[in-house]
Amino acid sequence: MTTQRAPSGLIGASIRRVEDPLLVTGKGCYVDDIQLPGMLHIAFLRSPYPHAKIISIDTAAAKAMPGVVAVLTGDDLSEHLKVPVPSIVRGMKIPPQPVLARGAVHAAGAPVAVVAAESRALAEDATSAIEVEYESLPAVADAEKALEPGAPLAHEEFDSNVCYTVTKKGGDVDQAFAAAEHVVRMHIASPRLVAMALEPRGVLASPEPMGQGLTVWLSTQGPHRARADLATGLGFPEHKIRVIAPDIGGAFGSKGPLYREYIVAAHLALKLGRPVKWISTRSEDFLTTNQGRDQAMTSELALKRDGTMIGLKVRVAANLGAYLQSNTAGPPQRMMAMAPGCYQIRNCHVEVVAVFTNTVSTGPYRGAGRPESVLNIERLVDKAAADLGIDRLEIRRKNFIRPEQFPYKTGVGVEYDSGDYGRSLDEALRLSNYDELIRQRDQARKRGELVGVGISTFVEPSGGAGFESGAVRVERTGVITVLTGSSSHGQGHETAFAQVAAEKLRVSMDQVAIRHGDTLAVQQGVGTFGSRSAVMGGGALAVAVDRIVEKARRIAAHLLEAAPEDIVQADGGFAVTGVPEKKVTWRQVAGAAYGRLPKGMEPGLQETVFFDPKREAWGFGAHVALVRIDRETGSPTLEKLVLVDDCGVIINPMLVEGQVHGGVAQGLGEAFREQMLYGDDGEALTGSLMNYAVPRASDMPPLVLGETVTPNPFHPLGVKGVGEAGCNGAPPAVANAVMDALAPLGIDHIDMPYTAPKLWEAIRQAESKKRS
Amino acid sequence: MNDERITVGITVNGVTHRAVVEPRTLLVYFLREQLGLTGTHVGCDTSQCGACTVHLNGRAVKSCTIFAVQADGAEITTIEGLARDSALHPVQEGFREKHGLQCGYCTPGMIMSAVHLLQANPRPTDAEIKHALEGNICRCTGYVNIVEAVKWAAERMRGDHVSR
Ligand code: FES
Ligand code: FES
């Protein structure tokens, strides 16, 4: 079996996942799979209005229904129960977010009442017996419209819809634009997307006997942060709460924050003294779970005639939705921090205006500001090339940050660690047979067909967001337990981290168990998001393992009666250098660690590391797309997609490919199909899978994957993240290909998603303009 | 609300269960909550995701679209009933071998749909596999390796693979 292969060579090998045997046999354990004796179910009554005053609520009929144990409204709850939202930008406005609405609702789907009952069906039945009288108020859904004078206020208590404004500046932008020989101006909007993790959100909260504590099973990306937020939101001590993240059915950023339903469930569990479960329906998920993107960029790129980029101005209107979750304010900041992409643009001015609207809150969704940023700069660069009559490869190469310039501080003051953008572009061109694609396109064009080739070159920041923890414990029998703060939701941590630990400890993988997702077992940790696990969790683990090896070496020296400098690692343990038969196993070392040690040596064999490299890891890549558009119907076909990603040293190529595939699928969803639509008045028009189109198997084009490897010089394993690369690079490559295909018609720019009706309309208009 | 209770006899993974259900109980909740077979998942409320796919009298069906009472007298196979004598079904093996899953939430439904396909068509093309999985959403894998997994399993089941 692969997991028993020789310990060396594990890092870099496509080891099959240790997670899978349970998951393919139906033995996974997701929150909804857990049933506890005496468990109650809760269901929420939600506002159908995007913005309304609540005049009255009558719960009498619901309370009288059989099986109903409690019915609560906002007025029944203490004001202290609320979703904790950190102020991550100075002066940002934080609207009140009681866990059940009090007096008003600001988005459709806001919870107005909750029912606890003996079964889910009874709880749902009872919500429909609650009578609520609303007075509808004017609402606004679009961020740019919300900034217009006289726009309806999303929150009546604020004097404008602006949550915060921040600016990042570098160099002298005014001078750059004054010196410019050409300026490209564009307005680019990224669609609002739904994360659509296949497992809907859910929670099961269970009071411990005698009121001592609370155990909470939660579909979350970060159990420790959820626990702290729950403690704050509930007013219950953190150290008496145990949060368990069991198997998680996908998340993509949307399961980062602590949503209000979780606080309600925990509150009811404590109040009623019974376990309380809430599992979102898919329709509820569409109305309550953080959505992604929805940033509109107004940008200007200043250039010299020869294509040298000298200045960048971006103004982003970022739609935050009505209520802030703990991470809602984040993605626009990310957008800013990578605005110049892989180019040397010394003079930058990037402003984000983050806006409240009467829509579902936004937040990190795979990419979390990265795809918006890459889309913006890559569209600008293509348009600049077209305007100036310069080849788009040449303009990129001319402006790339060069390998010898790293570490490189960009025009927005962010330092990139390493990179070789020219090399990854070359590889993508080679794999795509680029010249041949261009030849095919030109021939097709001569025949009047709409065919386009697009490229994107991009950076992919990963890691960051504070620290991550890793603890390594050699147990008495010599087996190894790893406790990682980086809990997984499908990425394969148990496999990848075991590869790292096993290789570095020179044991087989089955000697290592990776544990995560339980605040009672695992030291404080952060979680999995932002492509950070390999970098942060992997880094913590690597350092902890190194420390274990150092201590074990001293113990081995004692056991082998040699000097520690003469002890080397051997398969399964340690040996005296040059005398391989003089060796001890991990079991023997552990036996000594927990048994008899010489004076001055501390017993035990466990190390805990809180890892913070104080910098992010900047992966990068180049993607090439070939798109054909049917002139008669507008229907686009992605005929080829080549993806070259560089995520530094690769721990498990199979897992990296899987991440790229998944990211690309989501990116192509964004490019061609997906968009959460709201009417002008905030009404959700695409609130279910009936009309929100996620990619199906047949929507996936053939993919060609490639890689370059530029090790991260600041990381103990040399790794960078890759989880979001696919959805960062693919959509702009597609966008550039679609616009390339439409270029002969004089069409300048169309926003994603490129649905057939949208393209057909654009083609029709362009053709009639040409004729007239 | 309907207080009526109905007794049904449903054979699941070879075991016949007599059970009392409400008329509105969906087959998926009967399996999950009454029988504790939680490998069959629920991913939507509009019959679109396929996470709940099981076999009913040998056909792949979405168990969220059927009431338990409609399955009275039927033979159901769920993901838990696929492995025989602790040996994985080739499709299960294929998903592991080809990294056809990440979070695993769609996986039981995917596998049940794929098994049904291979029973009817032992030598499917890529397009046929994708078509057969049209009713199953996976948000993690981009389907690429799912198709590979099904092809791998098809080869195994035909017995024309070269043993490693
Ligand atoms: S749960 Fe049955 S199709 Fe989604
Ligand atoms: S593996 Fe997560 S939905 Fe398919």
Summarize this structure as a short list of keywords or feature phrases.
heterodimer; A: 772 residues; alpha+beta; Aldehyde Oxidoreductase, domain 4; Aldehyde Oxidoreductase, domain 3; 7-stranded mixed beta sheet; 5-stranded mixed beta sheet; 19 helices; 25% strand; globular; B: 164 residues; Ubiquitin-like (UB roll); 15% strand; binds FE2/S2 (inorganic) cluster
Protein architecture, described:
The complex is a heterodimer of chains A (772) and B (164). By secondary structure, chain A is an alpha+beta fold. Chain A folds into three domains: 2-28 and 465-611, Aldehyde Oxidoreductase, domain 4, CATH 3.30.365.10; 34-137 and 197-251 and 255-288, Aldehyde oxidase/xanthine dehydrogenase, a/b hammerhead (Aldehyde Oxidoreductase, domain 3), CATH 3.90.1170.50; 368-461 and 617-771, Aldehyde Oxidoreductase, domain 4, CATH 3.30.365. In chain A, the strands form eight sheets. Chain A has a seven-stranded mixed β-sheet, with helices on both faces. In chain A, strand 28 and strand 29 (636-646) form a beta hairpin. The longest helix of chain A is centred in the C-terminal third of the chain and has 28 residues, at 533-560. The radius of gyration of chain A is 28 Å and the shape is globular. By secondary structure, chain B is an alpha+beta fold. Chain B folds into two domains: 6-81, Ubiquitin-like (UB roll), CATH 3.10.20; 90-157, Orthogonal Bundle (DNA polymerase, domain 1), CATH 1.10.150.120. In chain B, 32% of the residues lie in helices and 15% in strands. A five-stranded mixed β-sheet of chain B has the order 2-1-5-3-4, with helices on both faces. The longest helix of chain B is centred in the C-terminal third of the chain and has 15 residues, at 144-158. Chain B starts with 5 loop residues before the first strand and ends in a 6-residue tail after the last helix. The mean pLDDT of chain B is 94. The complex binds FE2/S2 (inorganic) cluster (FES) (2 copies). One FE2/S2 (inorganic) cluster (FES) binds next to loops of chain B.
